[in-house]
Specification:
Structural class of chain A: alpha/beta
Number of domains of chain B: 1
Strand content of chain A: 15-25%
Helix content of chain B: 25-40%
Distance between the termini of chain A: 33 Å
Structural class of chain B: alpha+beta
Shape of chain B: globular
Radius of gyration of chain A: 21 Å
CATH superfamily of chain B: TusA-like domain
Order of helices and strands of chain B: EHEHEE
Strand order of the largest sheet of chain B: 1-2-4-3
Helix content of chain A: 25-40%
Largest interface: A-B, 28 and 27 residues
Number of domains of chain A: 2
Oligomer: heterodimer
CATH topology of the largest domain in chain A: FAD/NAD(P)-binding domain
Distance between the termini of chain B: 17 Å
Strand content of chain B: 25-35%
Number of strands of chain B: 4
CATH class of the largest domain in chain A: Alpha Beta
Number of helices of chain B: 2
CATH superfamily of the largest domain in chain A: FAD/NAD(P)-binding domain
CATH architecture of chain B: 2-Layer Sandwich
CATH class of chain B: Alpha Beta
Radius of gyration of chain B: 11 Å
Strand order of the largest sheet of chain A: 5-2-1-9-19
Largest sheet of chain A: 5 strands, parallel
Chain lengths: ~375, ~80
């Protein structure tokens, strides 16, 4: 029997691994010495960064999605049958429908999910753009907004570290264009003692926020929201009023990870260089679901997936390890409706973002379309 | 018996040691601890500052070879 690779998760990381393996293991797939199977939760593949634009009407909903079976190499059987239990001792995964898939190599790519319900009152009182339904509601809320206090509230942990700043500056441009900024106050809250995890980005953000007259409250970890009184309070003892609350909710990993006892909070303990599950030699972990102290970002998922593709292919064809993951992350930062910058770093190179420009914003807009080439393992 | 979660955040730029600590504290019980390793000198000040502000307890700060080890006990 050939070697069986099972990929759990049809998001960006899982899809790049599947497509990349197909490109490197064509002969092995043809002869049957290797087989790849994917389990997922949806027939659609969503471009998640596009959700940032939805509240402002800048993306059509249809542009966010493609059929997963068209993004995925046709040599990969894809089952819309989510994993219910992952047993790394027996080397098998049981699905919601009751089927059992055995594997020789497992790739866990189950991603992360928002958990606004983890903070009392947050789900009832806040808007968010981190899923389709939330982005739609926020779009409706913004269309009806006629001025007042906006609080943008950030909770740890969350995916896409730059999105909170992006939504803030895009909100400013959007409201300015509607003539509402003279009737609006923007307040930004962040969990640590500066405006962003990355110091250079935090310094840039402070300069911009001071320029526009935004208010901010750092060391703010949300304790509860009172949707009736429209207040949000922190563990640190601060309470803020709001007329319109936008939250970046706290996240967790997928339920199957906690249900399978693979990691507290849904985060799988993972070797930061090898991307192997700690204690395993046949279980790779990629994307948001690792517990690696690194950005939960699309680019992280992409570079991790590329590494896993190289290593799995090398192990199967040459019996050797190819290379370690160097911690690379590359993120565009929309600094308004028509400017942008980017930041990149790895485990040994600190970030050093450049000044925002229209050209980088345009390149981000181009990447919004080129993403599908990345998902197909071509870019 | 006190459980201790360990986070090796050396060379972690984003989201960084304090954000990792905040996330980890949400997953443990009151009385349990998180031990964070950070190569960022700022963490050695920022973490105790936040712990005091929010009401948890510092279990100790140790300067090691090229990094700092900080232990935080969840108090609420």
């Amino acid at each position: 029997m050939g070697k069986r690779i099972l990929i759990v998760g049809g998001g960006l990381a899982g899809t790049i691994v599947a497509n990349g393996l197909c490109r490197q293991l064509g002969e092995e797939l043809r002869t049957g010495s290797v087989g790849i199977t994917m389990l997922g939760t949806s027939d659609k593949h969503m471009y998640q960064p596009g959700l940032l634009y939805l509240p402002f009407g800048r993306f059509r909903e249809s542009e966010l999605f493609r059929d997963q079976r068209k993004v995925l190499d046709r040599r990969v059987p894809y089952f819309i049958d989510p994993a219910a239990n992952i047993d790394v001792e027996k080397k098998e995964v049981t699905t919601d429908s009751g089927k059992t898939h055995s594997y020789d190599y497992l790739v866990i790519a189950t991603g992360s999910q928002i958990k606004p319900q983890n903070v009392p009152g947050l789900a009832e009182g806040a808007h968010w753009f981190y899923d389709l339904e939330g982005a739609r509601r926020m779009r409706e809320g913004l269309e009806a907004f006629e001025g007042g206090k906006i609080v943008i509230n950030v909770n740890a942990p969350h995916k896409c570290p730059v999105a909170p700043l992006e939504i803030t500056f895009m909100l400013y441009d959007y409201l300015n264009s509607k003539g509402l900024m003279d009737k609006t106050e923007i307040m930004y809250t962040y969990p640590i003692g500066r405006l962003h995890a990355l110091e250079p980005v935090a310094e840039w953000a402070k300069t911009e926020m001071d320029k526009y007259g935004f208010k901010y409250e750092t060391f703010f970890n949300t304790k509860e929201v009172d949707p009736e009184k429209k207040t949000i309070s922190s563990e640190e003892g601060v309470t803020l009023d709001y007329d319109f609350l936008v939250t970046i909710p706290p996240h967790s990993g997928a339920d199957v990870i906690t249900n399978s006892d693979l990691g507290a909070g849904g985060w799988v303990p993972t070797d930061r260089n090898k991307l192997l599950r700690e204690g395993s030699t046949d279980v790779f972990v990629v994307g948001d679901t690792t517990n690696i102290p690194i950005s939960k970002a699309g680019s992280t998922a992409h570079f991790e997936a590329d590494t896993v593709v190289d290593n799995l292919s090398s192990l199967l064809t040459e019996g050797r390890w190819a290379r370690n993951y160097d911690g690379k992350v590359f993120c565009f930062v929309e600094t308004g409706m028509d400017t942008g910058t980017y930041v990149w770093f790895n485990y040994t190179t600190p970030p050093n973002p450049g000044p925002p420009s229209q050209m980088i914003h345009w390149f981000k807009l181009v990447y919004n379309r080129l993403y599908w080439l990345s998902a197909r393992g071509l870019l | 018996m006190t459980q201790r979660t360990k986070i090796d955040a050396r060379g972690a730029f984003c989201p960084g040691p304090l954000m990792e600590l905040i996330a980890a504290l949400k997953l443990i019980e009151i009385g349990d601890e998180v031990e964070v390793w950070s190569s960022d000198k700022g963490s050695a000040n920022e973490i105790p500052e936040w712990v005091a502000k929010v009401g948890h307890e510092m279990g100790g700060t140790e300067e090691c070879d090229g990094y700092w080890s900080l232990v935080v006990k969840k108090a609420k």
